[in-house]
């Protein structure tokens, strides 16, 4: 590593199997420290894909919002959420509502949207008694570890996200699109290349085809960038999947993924993807007050099962358009 690299200048700790870590000797206002170190932190993220900052002592949502804003400027408003979140001021959200005993598989936030965050920000206010780490994985490394034939198929066909919005599980369409106005939802879908169909019970069914492999808009590196595994039925706990299939039917699950041509993705493919992710996961247990910055295109993130209370707040920034990432699948918006 060059002696003049951002990691060397800041004294970043690099350990196998762990994200790059910086111990902040911050006193006083955490947002002042963040403003002073903004450029250096962003440089470390560019170098390593993610950085965990320990020692800021973040205590509440107001402090977190101030730090996020100093590091990233304007924060994004989430659209097309797959699960409910609490919303705080300044564009800060709670983590997605997800059972504590179930993992959230590796994914890239909003990789099914036409515009998504280039930077994810996480802040831990309450660390769980056990588990609950936000793992990270380098997507170019994951891509290189996948079978060439499988990658070629996904590059050619892309992936398809199928969603069935209802008021019983996951985000409702009003939560996902920020409105109960059906006309506004339809306009959003047409503008964002999402096929939609209203159901007789008032629910909404959508389909959107996206690229599974993109190029990083800054470095040009090919990245495995999608939520193929995370939102697939075979990643669900077997008992949960069986229950959902029984209640909703195999074609009306709250979310599922397939190959871009509509062919099902087998449990063997999903198991392979999750195995490769796990082999390339870096993790560090949260401590209260921690901050983590993640390049959302280069780096996938996960949430591991946990016990005890856990409060991790989230911000999304640096909006990136899919068209700036050399998508392999053509998308035509209305």
Number of strands: 19
CATH topology term of the largest domain: Double-stranded beta-helix
| Shape estimate | globular
Q: Unreliable stretches, pLDDT < 50, 5 or more residues?
A: none
Order of strands, main sheet, comes to: 1-2-16-6-19-4-3
Could you say how many structural domains there are in total?
2
- Highest CATH level, the class of the largest domain: Alpha Beta
| Rg value | 19 Å
| Multimerization state | single chain
- Our estimate of the beta-strand percent is 25-35%
Q: What is the CATH architecture assignment of the largest domain? A: 4-Layer Sandwich
Q: How would a crystallographer describe the biggest sheet? A: 7 strands, mixed
On the 0 to 100 scale, the average pLDDT is: 94
Pfam families: TauD
Domain TauD/TfdA-like: 22-315
GO molecular function: dioxygenase activity
Cofactor: Fe(2+)
Topology:
Blueprint: H1 6-10, E1 21-23, H2 30-48, E2 50-54, H3 61-72, E3 87-88, E4 92-94, E5 104-107, E6 115-126, E7 130-131, E8 136-138, H4 139-145, H5 148-157, E9 159-165, H6 173-177, H7 182-191, E10 195-198, E11 204-210, E12 213-215, E13 222-224, H8 238-248, E14 255-259, H9 267-279, E15 281-282, E16 291-295, E17 299-303, E18 306-307, E19 311-321
Parallel strand pairs: 1-2
Antiparallel strand pairs: 2-16, 3-4, 4-19, 5-17, 6-16, 6-19, 7-18, 8-15, 8-17, 9-11, 9-14, 10-11, 12-13
Helix pairs in contact: 2-3
């Amino acid at each position: 590593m060059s002696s003049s690299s951002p990691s060397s200048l800041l004294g970043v700790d690099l350990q196998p199997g762990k994200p790059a870590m910086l111990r902040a000797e911050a006193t006083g206002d955490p947002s002042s420290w963040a403003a002073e170190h903004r450029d250096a932190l962003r440089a470390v993220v560019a170098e390593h894909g993610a950085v965990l900052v320990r020692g800021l002592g973040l205590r509440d949502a107001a402090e977190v919002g101030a730090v996020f804003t100093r590091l990233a400027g304007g924060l994004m408003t989430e659209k097309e959420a797959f699960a409910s979140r609490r919303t705080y001021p300044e564009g800060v959200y709670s983590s997605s509502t997800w059972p504590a005993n179930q993992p959230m598989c590796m994914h890239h936030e909003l990789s099914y949207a036409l515009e998504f965050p280039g930077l994810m920000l996480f802040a831990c206010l309450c660390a769980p008694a056990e588990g609950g780490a936000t793992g990270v994985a380098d997507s170019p490394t994951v891509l290189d570890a996948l079978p060439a034939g499988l990658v070629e198929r996904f590059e050619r066909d892309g992936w398809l996200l199928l969603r069935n919005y209802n008021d019983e599980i996951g985000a409702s369409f009003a939560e996902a699109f920020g409105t109960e106005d059906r006309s506004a939802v339809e306009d959003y879908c047409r503008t964002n290349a999402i096929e939609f169909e209203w159901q007789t019970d008032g629910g909404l069914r959508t389909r959107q085809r996206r690229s599974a492999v993109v190029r990083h808009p800054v470095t040009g590196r090919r990245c495995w960038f999608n939520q193929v595994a995370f939102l697939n039925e075979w990643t669900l706990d077997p008992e949960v999947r069986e229950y959902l299939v029984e209640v909703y039917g195999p074609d009306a699950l709250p979310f599922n993924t397939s190959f871009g041509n509509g062919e099902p993705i087998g449990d063997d493919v999903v198991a392979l993807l999750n195995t490769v992710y796990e082999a390339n996961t870096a993790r560090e247990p949260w401590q209260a007050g921690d901050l983590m910055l993640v390049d959302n295109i280069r780096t996938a993130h996960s949430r591991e099962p946990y016990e005890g209370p856990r409060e991790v707040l989230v911000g999304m920034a640096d909006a990136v358009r899919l068209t700036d990432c050399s998508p392999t699948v053509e998308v035509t918006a209305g």
